[in-house]
Amino acid sequence: MEKDGTISGTITSNRGTASIISGYLSVDKFSFTINFPLDQGPTDVTFSGTFDGTSLKGSISVLGLSLDFTGVKPASNSSASAAVLGGAQ
């Protein structure tokens, strides 16, 4: 993340590595677009939403579809982490 809030880099998951082609992070909002290989070939996927403390919510837009998501930040200690089975839904 740059000082002005713009983000860049790559994201790696079990589906591979995607480059962040644009993005920003502000006090309570975020948005970033990655270019990710799907069955149709390289595809732009945009994640946007808000966060408050340990929770976040937003949408994922890809190929004309929009999917809502929610998530929670896992607790920092191991006993609390075991109780948090959630994440992105």
The number of strands is 6
Computed structural class? mainly beta
Strand order of the largest sheet: 1-2-3-4-5-6
Overall 3D form = globular
Order of helices and strands: EEEEEEH
Question: How large, in whole angstroms, is the Cα Rg?
Answer: 14 Å
Separation of the first and last Cα atoms:
26 Å
Mean pLDDT: 81
Query: For the report, how would you describe the main beta sheet?
Result: 6 strands, antiparallel
Low-pLDDT sequence parts? 78-89
Percentage of residues in helical conformation: under 10%
Q: Give the percentage of residues in beta strands.
A: over 45%
Q: Count of DSSP helices?
A: 1
Description of the molecule:
- The protein contains one helix and six strands, in the order ββββββα.
- It is mainly β.
- Strands 1-2-3-4-5-6 form a six-stranded antiparallel β-sheet, with no helix packed on it.
- The longest helix has 6 residues, at 78-83.
- It is globular, with a radius of gyration of 14 Å.
- The model is unreliable at 78-89 (pLDDT under 50).
